[in-house]
Request: fold
Amino acid sequence: MTPAEARSRLPPDLPGIDDILPGWLARAAEVLAVDEMERLLDGVAALAATRGTDPALSLLEAAPETVAATHASVLPLLLDITAYLAAVRDDASVGPFLITLPTVARRLRSPEALNAWMRLIRRMVIEARDGLVPLLGVADHLLHRLGIDGVLAWADNGIETYRDYAFQLHDYFGLRSADAHAMMQRQRHGTLFADVERQLGLTLRALWGQKPAFHPHPVAFGTLAQQAAPHLDKLGMHLPDLLDDQDGVAGIDRYRATVAHLAAHRLWTRPLLADNFSPFQHLAIELFEDARVEALAIGHHPGLRRLWLALHPDPKPGACPPGWSCIRHRLTMLSRRLLDPRHDCPDPLLEHYAGLFHAQFAAAPHDPRLAADLGVHLLKEIHHPDFHSPRLWFEDTVVGYRDDNRYLWHFLEDASRPTDFHSDHGTADPPEAPSQPGVMPPLHYPEWDHVRKTYHPDWVSVHEAIQAPGDAAAIAALPARDTVVAKRLQGVIDRLRPQQRRRERHRPDGDDIDLDRLVTARIDLCAGSVPDGRVYQSVRHHDRTLAVLLLLDLSDSLGRQPPGAPSSLLRLAQESVVLLGWAVEALGDPFAVAGFASTSRHDVRFLHHKGFDEPFGPAVMARLAGMRAGASTRMGAALRHAGARLLARREDMKLLLLLSDGRPADIDVDDPAHLTHDAHRAVTELRAAGVVPFCIGLDPEAEKDTAAIFGPAGYAMVDRLDRLPERMTRLFLSLVA
Reply:
């Protein structure tokens, strides 16, 4: 789909859509087919007609991120719920619903769970509308603590208890009442997959050399087959989104046991043709294949045996009563014996097959036919007419850390539905994204709400682009006055240039004698004083590593010409970048330049003028010449994005220089303090992460705001703007020193 085709499906009077549409298309095409994109755009147009621009743009941004985190199958219900909320008179929940949806989707990571969440939203509108907006405000916190099952139970309690008490609905669903917290603690149990996903990924890489591809599924949703056990398919490892502690084994260790078992299957299992075997033979073959890959895994990591034994059931002989199908019972007894060589198995036939397995495994551990041969022969000998009984004995037969072994089987028949038990064989490939060179999808950042003391997740969309070039000749030659400044700065730069070796004197030990100190010590000794024993010197290696990113505030204020200045602030900023670039390159440090401006939270433009590893040549000069001032200053989002680029660098010191009037503002923000508090929060985040932000202020009247954002030691005001290039470069050199 082209931008023109997409634009034709939207209202002509939708402000700002032309700027964000190319980037949105690039992102949407990665996760949506063309017909799905058309349906989404039609939904955006309908929402714009009833609720205006902001909710429509929120839907446009939220839908691709939601689908990317779950599956395209959630889109119809998403559009249906959005239209339903928009149609409810005097309801203000459609905006918060769309804003929080991508965060909720990333927390749930399952289409079934997200659909359950959206059905809860519909129920809240019908039965407890006053609690919906407070619920959306704490959704991420609740899902993080409880998982989807716990949230549904917690919400059901609130709806049933307070549906007739509007003010108490607000307190309960906003987590402002003791009852809400007590009920939340009652629902809290087990280990959430989202809390341990990173640790499991590191374990998978470290122990098995495999790239993590996890897909959590909620315990209470999906088909019975999907609930029964974890599974492995071509998409990755499918795990439950929450696990309780079991038999003294913590939830995270249960996850580790499952991941290790699945990793072993991925390494050593080769699919068999399922149509060649009966369902009972499947069970027997799966038992031996599980034992084979676990034995191989234990050979690499012996500690796995203890972990798996702690989770493996130990069925007792005779526990399965007559008249019941005992096939699972007998196979689980053999499984326990294969995992634990010291286990006493009173069944001589099972003991015989345990011996056969160990003998064949010792001879050919990687033989893919081992499991099939033993499984078929075992079933012939243990088969009993009761195996066909409809009463199947399950007690002490479920090995919870093992998968359902769909990875072991290949079926000749095509799956009849995408949600079939063997869904990985029938899943359609995701749509291919059309090639759109030069267009980058937007990046989403949170924004701090100082009133509620919380973040708006994924609130601001940052659109990256390369600055369009201008006439490089206009600024390629440094003005004569800056040439004089450069000569004055050269001595400072020479002193600051990193030296690979530095002499350290006045030391108690070292590589050589410090003659000056030795003479002083001798004089003290002759005078009867106690001499200073620090008479040595040594040479140490010293290599400073520094990365610098200069961020330019390209809002309207940069286009003005200050009184008494020879040129506009824009021109002075261009000269400053050239002089600063010369100084940083002379020091040998990597240096990047970017600018930003905004027209709402949906469209923060981040323009790249120079990359860290790019030489300060004609191409950079041309981009600097193309610099233009306009729009507003959403400073917090720009600082977070610039900080993310710096944090990707390996240098020890990361310096973020901001050239700005120091007064954040945007067209969709009425409270002037909101963006100031958010920018201060962004500065705090950067400092905690190891980035040094420093603002060079251009407007003395905004010094109060600048100080509130950066702190008393985090900024400097330029009193004479005509000296901006020299002042900015000297400030940089003083920071480096």
About this structure: Confidence is low (pLDDT under 50) at residues 220-227, 413-437. Residues 3-191 form one domain. The radius of gyration is 33 Å.
